[in-house]
Amino acid sequence: MIKFDNPCLDRPYLVFKEKYNESLIAKQDNIEAICISSYSPKDDEVNARYVNLKFINDNQFIFFSNYNSPKSIEFNQHEQITASIYWSRTNVQIRMKAYIKKTSKEFNQNYFAERDEKKNALAISSYQSSPIDSYEMLKKNYEICLKKNNLNECPDYWGGYSFTPYYFEFWEGHKSRLNKREAYKFQNDEWIHSFLQA
Amino acid sequence: MIKFDNPCLDRPYLVFKEKYNESLIAKQDNIEAICISSYSPKDDEVNARYVNLKFINDNQFIFFSNYNSPKSIEFNQHEQITASIYWSRTNVQIRMKAYIKKTSKEFNQNYFAERDEKKNALAISSYQSSPIDSYEMLKKNYEICLKKNNLNECPDYWGGYSFTPYYFEFWEGHKSRLNKREAYKFQNDEWIHSFLQA
């Protein structure tokens, strides 16, 4: 589930909410899964991974990560990203282009303090994406951490990312294959709407 | 559904097939949906969109597109891409890095000739991703095309893309949140396996 705070009333945000509600009613599993595509100029390589979108607060989309993870290193190098959602139950695709930035330390700390301690132990103990000898080793590190640390204190290397799209595209698959595509581009302080060919 | 031809027996391909079968049994909707992330050096912009993966032939992943679409222009500029799959029913994520290239004209023509004529009319009539006045206009163009063209002849501006991954990553979500991550990297003619921290 995605938590909507201070809902933004701009047209693409309303369309987003509408499609979300339809997919929720259609019992979409893991509805918060969103693919974040990034680019590393250093490696001249495109990368992507799914994250859980936690909040949409006004016009900001927010998820959380280890700040030393490969994706964080890529965001530091190249702030522009694309976020893609596909809800298979309703056959709806949403594409968003945006610039990404870290959320504030205060925001991270408040969110962390509210979370389940077991989840926090995982965030503290994992060197996200680093190689490890085995899955058992991961479990062991986690269990040691569960006993030791102050599990309500957010470490510096963990926190949120927020992005505000400058481009939205909504795609809806139809049985006829005459798929519906609509785009919204933010230009000169307003959202420009267009229909696109499927 | 994805069609598997001449199955590749390399370890990551076997794991891919195993996860695919599990998701198929779990009744994953639109199991062939795959997110293709690309980069445009001209616009210094990352982009992504879902496509339908049609074939895995030996070690090649194949989908089809209009060759004048924005994604084709991006592939021409920057051949390296990332392909991401998320099967929500089994909570499995697969990430692949690869270089992309067009399939042969002969391959495209053979595939096109076998397809449903209605789908072909759509491929012929649509200037993919170009703006259009309305959804009704899209329908109208399509209906005109249905009557007029030779619907078995593949136009030059339509065909396949194929990619062969040099990197695979499999992620499996667990209720405990101790997620399982395994990577395979192709190096010096062999697949190097590693476990990654969640």
What does this structure look like?
The structure is a homodimer of 198-residue chains. Chain A has a single domain, classed as Pnp Oxidase, Chain A (Roll). Chain A is 28% helix and 40% strand. Chain A is built from five helices and eleven strands, in the order βαββββαββααβαβββ. The first copy, chain A, has helices at 11-25, 70-77, 105-114, 117-125, 135-148; strands at residues 3-5, 33-40, 45-52, 55-57, 60-66, 80-87, 92-102, 131-132, 158-172, 180-187, 190-196. In chain A, strands 1, 2, 3, 4, 5, 6, 7, 9, 10 and 11 form a ten-stranded mixed β-sheet that branches. In chain A, α4 (117-125) crosses α5 (135-148). The longest helix of chain A has 15 residues, at 11-25. Chain A is globular and about 55 Å long. The model of chain A has no long low-confidence stretch (mean pLDDT 93). Chains A and B meet through β2, β3, β6, β7 and α4 of A and β2, β3, β6, β7 and α4 of B. β8 of chain A pairs antiparallel with β11 (190-196) of chain B, so a sheet runs across the interface.
Would you kindly provide a brief summary of this structure?
2 copies of one chain form a homodimer. By secondary structure, chain A is an alpha+beta fold.
Shape of chain A: globular
Roughly how much helix do the residues of chain A carry, as a percent range? 25-40%
Estimate the strand proportion of chain A: 35-45%
Low-confidence stretches of chain A: none
Cα radius of gyration of chain A in angstroms = 19 Å
- What is the chains' assembly state? homodimer
What is the domain total for the residues of chain A? 1
Return the average pLDDT of chain A rounded to an integer: 93
Which CATH class of chain A applies here? Answer: Mainly Beta
